[in-house]
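Retro notes, structure queue

What went well: the backlog is down to a handful. What didn't: a couple of records were mislabeled last round, so from now on we paste the full input next to the output in the thread. Example, using Cohesin subunit SA from Cyclopterus lumpus:
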Amino acid sequence: MIAAQDLHTEFQFAQEAESQLSSDTDLEDPDGKNAKTGKGMAAKKGKKAPGDKAKGGGAGRAPGLGRVNGHYQENGMETLFEVVKMGKSATQSVVDDWIEAYKHDRDHALLDLINFFIQCSGCKGAVSGEMFRHMQNSEIIRKMTEEFDEDGGDYPFTMAGPQWKKFRINFCDFIAVLVRQCQYSIIYDEYMMDTVISLLTGLSDSQVRAFRHTSTLAAMKLMTALVNVALNLSINMDNTQRQYEAERNKVLAKRANDRLENLLQKRKELQENQDEIENMMNAIFKGVFVHRYRDAIAEIRAICIEEIGMWMKLYSDAFLNDSYLKYVGWTMHDKQGEVRLKCLGALQGLFHSRELGARLELFTSRFKDRIVSMTLDKEYDVAVQAIKLLTLVLQSSDEILTAEDCESVYHLVYSAHRPIAVSAGEFLFKKLFSHRGPEEEGLPRRGRQSLNGSLIKTTVFFYLESELHEHGAYLVDSLWDCGSELLKDWESMISLLLDEPVSGEEALTDRQETALVEIMLCAIRQACECHPPVGRGTGKRVLSAKEKKTQLDDRTRITEMFAVALPLLLAKYCVDIDKVTNLLQIPKYFDLDIYTTGRLEKHLDALLRQIWEVQDKHTDTEVLEASSTTYHSLCNEEFTIFNRVDIARSQLLDELVDKFNTLLEDFLQEGEEPDEDDAYQVLSTLKKISAFHNAHDLSKWDLFTSNYKLLNTGLQNGDMPEQIVIHAMQCTHYIILWHLAKVSDGSSLKGDMVTLRKQMRAFCLMCQRYLNSINNAVKEQAFTILCDLLLIFSHQMMSSGREQLEPLVYTPDSSLQAELLNFILDQVFIDQDEDNNSTDGQQDDEASKIEALHKRRNLLAAYCKLIIYNVVEINTGADIFKQYMRYYNDYGDIIKETLSKTRQIDKVQCAKTLVLSLQMLFNDMLSELGFNVDRSTSAFCGIKELSRRFSLTFGLDQMKTREAIAMLHKDGIEFAFKEPSPQGQGSPPLNLAFLDILSEFSSKLIHQDKRTVHKYLERFMTVQMALQRDDCWLPLISYRNSLQVGGDDDTMSVISGISSRGSTRSKKSKSATASKRKLPEEENSCSSSDAVWMNREQNMQTPVMMHSPHLTSTVLRDPKKMRQEDSCTAAFTMPTEQLPHQPVPLQQQPHHHHQTAIDYNTQVTWMLTQRQQVEARQQQERVSMHYAKMRNHMQQEIRRGSGLMEDDEEPIVEDVMMSSEDRLEDINEDMNFETMDIDLPASKNRRERSELKPDYFDPSSIMDDSVLNVSMF
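Corresponding output:
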C-alpha cells in the first residue's frame, strides 16, 4: 500500500494559496471506518462547487455546457464518457483537452474523470461537486451504488456489438495516453493520481460487479501505463548515471563541475519520480490486483493475469521474479478456461525471448508438470496454447522437458481436433527435425542420400513406434503446416523405395517400406485435395488463388513424377497386398492431360499392364476394388487417353466374364460333385467381377441369369460354399442397381422397367429364403442386401418428380417383416460370449470382439433405417426399443436416434410403440417369475427404469406431446385390466402391476388430461378396487396418486385423495365439498365424459363406476373444516351384484339419470361402516395431527406478525422431485430445456389460473364417436 508519508490525497482548488494534506485512508480503509469527515478536502467556506463554475474544464466541452448536481445537461454537449464512447475524436486530442482543463481547474477536470469511470460502469448517477468536496470515497461509492440501475444486468463492458467492443479499446487507450501525456508533471503533483487510485481501489472492492469490473480494468491499464513510465525513468536514470560516471572519470582540468551537479540533480529528481511511481504501482498492486486476481468473476481474473504478463514482459527487472510469477502459476489451476488461457498467453510472451526464458528456470521446474497436463485440457483453446508454450520452452532449452513430457505431446498429432494436432505436429517437428549436425551440412538436397531422406526415415520410425498404423493421414495433416516441404519431397520417397542402399547404409525393412508407401499416399492426397482427413474438418473450405495455384503445381509434379515411377513400384511390390492397395490409389490424383502433353503414353501402357497383372495375381477384395477404382479414374471421356484405357478395360472384362461362364457351366453340371479347385476358380473369378461391377456398368454381359442360377442351385442343394453365395448375392445386387440407374435416367428401353421389376422381386425372394440359411455369414449378407433393396425401392423413390418409377415400388409383406425382425433379435441382441461364429473362434481377441460388435451395429442400423423411413411398421420397433437398457453400451445411440426419428414421423404411434415394448417386457417377466409380481425384483425395476428413460425422451414441452402421452396412458390402462386375476374374484388383475410402470409417464400429462385419464381409469374399476389397501393393490393406488398431483382438481375422486394424502395437510382441500356444489349441468357433463376412450369392441365393455345418488342431510359440516375422508361417499356408489371383471352388456349400461335403484338403508349402513374405518385411521394419526396444528398455528402467528393476510398463507407443497439422485444424471436425456411450465398451487397461482390460455387439445383423437359432442373437461 501507499505509505501515509509518501502518498497524500490532496484536494486543492485553484483559488487557494495553501493546501491541506491528509493520508489517503481510503486506500488503507476502503470501507471508510477510520476516515475522518471531509478527509482530503480543502474547500473554503463560500467556495463554489466545480459544477457551479461558469467555465468548464472538461475534455471536448463547449462553452454552453452546464451541470446540476453533477449531471451533465444534454444541450448539445457531450460528456467525457460520450466522447470516448463515440470515438470520433482522436484519443490524443481528447486527453490534451482534458489536460488543458486540468491545468485551468484541476478539481473540475478531476470530477469529470471520476464521473467518466462511474459512467463507464453503467451507473446512471454522477458525482457532484458537493459530494466531491465533503464525502469520502467509500461514501461516494455507496451513494453511486444506490443510484445504480438494478433492472438491467448489462453494462458497457459486457454489452455485445461492435460499438461496445470499440468502446473497450478506446477506454484502454484513453488511460494509456492519459498517463503518457501526464508522465512529466501532473502524475507527480500528489493529487490527480492519488485521487484516481483511491477511487479505483474503492470501486474494485464494491459488491457491484459493474463497478468491480470497470475499476479493475482501469486500474490494471493504469498500472501498465505506469510500468511504461517506470521503464522510461529507469532508462533515463541509467543514461544519466552513465553520463555522470563518464564526466567524473575525466581529468580534473577537463571536468565540468556544474555539469556534474546538474547530472547529480537530474539523477536525484529521476530517483524521486521513480520512488513516486513505485509507490503508485505498489498501491495498485496491493490494493487491486492481490484481491481481484481471485475474484469470483472469471473475466476480472483474466484481466489481472493478462496485465501482469505485460508487466513482466515490459519491465522484467522489477516484475520478472518469483514474487509475481507465483500468481500466474497458481492461476493455471483456475476453473475457467478463459483464465487459464490468459496464463498461458502471459507465459508465451516471456518465453518468446530467450533472455527472459532463461530467467524462468525455477518457475518452469515448479509448474512444468501443470503445463504438460494442460495439453489435455478440456478446453481445446487452452490445450492448443499449452502445446505452443511447450514448443517455446523446447526452443529455449532442450534439457527442461523430459522424454515422458515430450511423449505426452507426441500422441496428440493423432487428435481429432485439428488445431491441437497441428500444434503437436509443430512440437514434433521442432523436436525431431530442427536439429542438424555438422555432418549433415554437405548432403544433397534431394534423393536417398539427402537430408530430407534422413528426415523421411525419422518420420517413418516415429509412425511405426506410435503404434497407430491406420492413422497415417492424421500424422501427415498434423505435420503439413510446418513440414510440407519435407512431405512433398516425393522424389526422395521414390528413391528410398526403388534405389538400392549404398554400402554401409541400412536398408528399410518390409514394414518400414509399407509405412513409407502409406505416408507417401497421404501426402499426395493432402496436396491434391487441400483439406484435412475425415473427422478433422467441418467441410471443404474455399481456397485462395495462391492455394489453388499451389494445388495445380503439386498435382502436375505428382503426375509427371509418378507416371514414370508408379509402374516400377507396382512391378517391384506386385505381390504385396498392402503396398499395392495404396499404390493403386495414386492415379486418381493424376492430371490425365499430362499423359498426352508430356508424351507419356508408353508409361500409361506400362501402368495398364501392371494393373492387369495385379488383378490376375490377387484375389483379395481390397486389391481388386483398388484396381477397379484405378480403371474408373483413368476411363474419363474428357481426356484423349479414354479410348486406350477403355479398350484395355473391355478386354479384361471380356476375359473375366468368359472365364466365369465356362467355369460356372462345369461347376453346375448335374451328377458331378465339384472339387475344391473348381470352387476356388469360380470364387476368385466371381470376386473380380463383383469388384469391377461396383464401379463399372457390366449390363451388356447379362450376368443376372448366371448369378441367379448359381444362387438357386445353392438353395436346392444346400452345399454351396458360403463365399460363392455371398459374392453372387453382391454381384446380383450391383446388377439391379446399375439397371435401376439406367431406368431412372431414361436411357433404357421400353421393357427394361418390367424386366427390372421381375428381377428385383425374384432376387428379394431369393434373399428372403437365404435368411433361413444355417450359415451366419450368408444370412448377414442376405439381410444387408434386403434392407438396402427395400429402402431403395420404397415409396421414397418416387420423390423429386420420379413418379414414373411407381411400378418398381416394393413393400415387404408381413412374413418378410417378421423374418427381418427375427434375424435382428437372433443375431444382434446377443451377449458378447455367445457370438461364436462371427468371431471365428477368437472371442479372446479384443480386436475380433470389436469387429464383431461393429458388424452387429451395422446390421441394427440397417433395420432401424427401415423403421425410420416407414418401410416396415413402426410398431415393429417395440422389439428394438425394449432392449434399450440391456444393450445400452452397445446400441444405445442407435436405438435412441431411431426413437427420436420415429417420434418426428408420428408421435402417437411412437408412444404406442413404447408402451408396447414395456408390455412385452412385462409379459416376459410374468412368464419367467410367475403371476405373483414382486415389484422389488431386478426385472421389474429394470422395466420401471426403462419407462423412466422413455419418459425423459418426451422433453418438457407437454403441449407438443399431449396426445401421444394420453394415448400411451390409454393403452397402458387397458393392458393393466385386460386379464382377470387367475386367483379369482377379489384379487387384482393379472397385469395390475403394470400401472406402477405406467406412473413414470404421469408427469408428462397436463392437469386437464390427468383428470381425463383418471376418469378413464375409473371405468375399469369397481368400488371394491377403490377401497383396497393391500400391498397387491399398491400399483393402482400409486398410479391414481400420480394422476392427482396438484390439489386443485374439483372433480377428483375423494377416496383416491385418502390414499395419496394420508396426512393432516389435506384439511384445506376443497375437493371434499366440491362435488356437493355441482350444478346439474356439470354433473351431466361429467357423467357423459365417462365415455372417453371407449374405442373398444362393441361386444366388450369395461365396468363403469356407478355414481351415487345425492343424499339430503339436515346437518352439514362447514365446508372449510370438512375432511376429505368425510366425503368419500360423494364419488362412488355401492357395488352392484355384477362381478368386478365381468363386462357389462351395452344395453345394461346405465346413464346418469337412469341408474339402477339401490336400497337406501343398505347404502346408509355401508356409509357408516366406511366412516368407522376412516375414524379408526384418524385415531392413529392424532399425534401427527397435533404436531401439524401446532406448526400451522406458529406459521399463522409468524405471518400475522409480518402483516400477511390469512388467504396469502404459503401452502405446504409436497416434494414431487425424483426420489433418487442417480436419476438426475439422465435428466437431460433428449430433453428440450427451452420451456419449463411449473404449475403453482392454487393460493400462489390465483391470478395466473384466471388467465390460462384456452385448451386447443382435440378430444376426438382419443374419444369415441358417441362422445364427440360432450365437453371433455
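Agreed that this is the format going forward. Reviewer comment attached to the example: Residues 877 and 913 are 7 Å apart (CA to CA).
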